[in-house]
From TrEMBL:
GO terms for biological process: proteolysis. It holds the Pfam family F5_F8_type_C. One of its GO terms (molecular function) is zinc ion binding. Belongs to the peptidase M14 family. It comes from the Eukaryota. Its cofactor is Zn(2+). This is Carboxypeptidase X (M14 family), member 1b. Residues 5-167 form the F5/8 type C domain. PANTHER family: CARBOXYPEPTIDASE X1-RELATED (PTHR11532:SF43), PROTEASE M14 CARBOXYPEPTIDASE (PTHR11532).
Length: 648
């Protein structure tokens, strides 16, 4: 990194620079202290708490400064400045000077020829502005010294968020310094940011290296026609194996939260390499699990952020789809319908608690549903996923459903019937993650998740209607959590090996949780054929799941003794006890169902005039078909418009 201006950030944003390395001439209050002067730091909702969104000087004069101690001699090449993050206040620094020192007593200014250099700062509070020095300077300390700022009459405060670019020089007195901090990974992986073309190329390389256990497929296209590629890893790619659970990781739903994408690209390389090496753990994972990795759900947004680069993309550029849709709240809201029904229905037996159909209005061509969201919903339906996680960035915490509060409260603990298992899942990731589980880490932005052991019920953090996790739980058999991977949404390339080391174990441990609980096959007692869409009910947990096409099912459960009942259309119900152990493997619980006797069927037919049909299932299938039809129509229209535009 040490040629010209290619020096990496020191790490104000990534928290590599610790609070004690930051000092200031003065500050208004603790919440606006020098430790808050970090690029992209986010303020809390209330102005005036300890989590404000910048360093703000107490005085309004040209003698104020923010100082960074790099702790070692460093070749400083530039700084990046940003205004204050706040809902209520608008503060930016327009111009500034920079000074350097080796001892904090004697300071030298950054020069432009024979003059003190004056650098351009910000015009708005969000866009990061890069200022490169005319000549890089070697020193230990650097000061940013504002010269002009938004005055707001006389009320304008001097506030800023910053990042410093610099190459740390080798310390001649310390021969063993390379052992002091691990900045590399033992794994030989392709640690860099991959744009769309490079991502596709890397996936192709992994497939060529491990053709017997990988398959690349696309689940649809983004608004700008980029394919949503998935890497499947399994010892029998392309086919669902009876009894083998399906797992998925989804990254890049917000295009500017890029770490998940790189981790999934690392993960596919790692699994391929370790499989070939004969690593027992990986062999078992590939043999017993069908894994699907979608590294980029929002490739359009990613390309926008990628073009700006790691430090200059700001907090939101590339978050949304090309049409401006936030995919994290773009899935069908099934919670509201469920809760309304619970309030209105007096007969509890008529309530449904799983496989909720998509609402009618959501399936129309006019519904504001991103093509990427449509593609993922279709994918969720075509593969019987059991467990998944979606990878985000900008915080360090694992959140589990529900993500939506019941009465639209801004935040409120809103548990699912599977609360205890979701807490187990979230803990499995958080407790094995090297950064999250570090008790000495400082909070990223404005909430201290260490107090919650780094896991939280999504709705208890903030209300998100139409989230992927809630939709997955209520519409399919699949349990899903959100992993917020890092304080910094777009870590510098030099951080990627460390981030892989931080997350490798968590990514593997979480996948292994798909083998917790019970699984089995539901069969017809007379013919032995598998029964699809049988309902699996666990006593005292008000959330059922269903068997899939060949009659196999998986029910994620914590260790314990469970009474399980299976029902299916035209069959008599069957119950048994299933005991879940602490092992890696699930408990096998098969069921054989007896068809209803003809007399009983005739009786039902006499009373009703028809067999009891699974109305819920039919409606769910019909709505999904409609969603697919409207998606096809929208895509055809878009393709035709693109062709016309090309001709013009």
């Amino acid at each position: 990194f040490c040629n010209g201006h290619k020096c990496p950030p020191l790490g104000l944003e990534s928290l590599k620079v610790k609070d004690y390395q930051l000092r200031a001439s003065s500050y208004k209050r603790r919440g606006l202290g020098p430790h808050r002067g970090r690029l992209n730091i986010q303020s809390g909702v209330e102005d005036g708490d300890i989590y404000d969104g910048a360093w703000c000087a107490l005085h309004r004069d040209k003698k104020q400064w923010l100082e960074v101690d790099a702790q070692r001699l460093t070749r400083f090449t530039g700084v990046i400045l940003q205004g204050r993050s706040s809902i209520w206040s608008w503060n930016v620094v327009h111009t500034f000077k920079v000074q350097f020192s080796n001892d904090t007593l004697l300071w030298k200014s950054s020069m432009n020829g024979s003059e003190e250099a004056i650098f351009e700062g910000n015009q708005d509070t969000e866009t990061p502005v890069l200022a490169l020095f005319h000549t890089p300077t070697v020193a230990r300390y650097i000061r940013i010294n504002p010269q002009s700022w938004y005055q707001n009459g006389t009320q304008g405060d001097i506030c800023l968020r910053a990042e410093v670019l610099g190459c740390v020089l080798p310390d001649p007195s310390n021969v063993h310094e390379w052992q002091a901090e691990p900045s590399e990974s033992k794994d030989k992986l392709d640690f860099r940011h991959h744009n769309y073309k490079e991502m596709r190329k890397l996936m192709k390389v992994v497939h060529e290296e491990c053709p017997n256990i990988t398959r690349i497929y696309s689940i649809g296209k983004s608004y700008k026609d980029l394919k949503l590629y998935v890497m499947e890893i399994s010892d029998n790619p392309g086919k669902h194996k009876l009894g083998e659970p399906e797992f998925r990781y989804v990254a890049g739903m917000h295009g500017n939260e890029v770490l998940g994408r790189e981790l999934l690209l690392n993960l596919m390389q790692y699994i391929c390499q370790e499989y070939k090496r004969g690593n027992q753990r990986i062999l078992r994972l590939v043999r017993d699990t069908r894994i699907h990795l979608l590294p980029s759900m929002n490739p359009d947004g990613y390309e926008m952020a990628f073009k700006k680069g790691s430090e200059l993309a700001g907090w939101a550029l590339g978050r949304y789809s090309y049409e401006g849709i936030d995919m994290n709240s773009n899935f069908a809201d099934l919670n509201s319908g469920m809760w309304t029904a619970i309030e209105l229905e007096t007969d509890r037996s008529k309530l449904i608690n799983h496989y909720f159909p998509i609402p009618e209005q959501y399936t129309s061509e006019d519904a504001f549903v991103a093509s990427e969201t449509r593609a993922v919903i279709s994918w969720m339906q075509s593969i019987p996923f059991v467990l998944g996680a979606n990878l985000h960035g900008g915080e360090l915490v694992v959140t589990y459903p529900y993500d939506m509060t019941r009465d639209w409260a801004p935040r409120e603990h809103t548990p699912t019937p599977d609360e205890s298992f979701f807490r187990w899942l979230a803990t499995a990731y958080a407790s094995t993650n090297q950064v999250m589980s570090n008790p000495d880490r400082r909070p990223c932005h404005n909430k201290n998740f260490l107090r919650y052991n780094n896991i939280i019920n999504g709705a208890d953090w903030h209300n998100v209607p139409g989230s992927m996790n809630d939709f997955s739980y209520l519409h399919t058999n699949c349990f899903e959590v959100t992993v917020e991977l890092s304080c910094d949404k777009f870590p510098h390339v030099s951080e990627l090996p460390i981030e892989w080391e931080n997350n490798r174990e968590s990514l593997l441990v979480y996948m292994e949780q798909v083998h917790r609980g019970i699984k089995g096959v539901i069969r017809d007692k007379d013919t032995g054929a598998g029964i699809a869409n049988a309902i699996i009910k666990v006593e005292d947990i008000d959330h059922h799941i269903r068997s899939v096409a060949d009659g196999d099912y998986w029910r994620l459960l914590n260790p314990g003794e469970y009474r399980v009942t299976v029902t299916a259309e035209g069959y008599l119900p069957n119950s048994r006890s299933c005991h879940v152990m602490y092992d890696f493997y699930p408990t096998i619980c098969d069921f054989y169902l007896t068809m209803m006797p003809k007399e009983k069927l005739k009786d039902i037919l006499r009373k009703r005039g028809k067999l009891p049909e699974d109305v819920q299932l039919r409606l769910r299938q019909r709505r999904l078909r409609k969603l697919r039809v409207t998606t096809k129509a929208i895509n055809q229209r878009r393709a035709a418009a693109a062709k016309r535009a090309k001709r013009v």
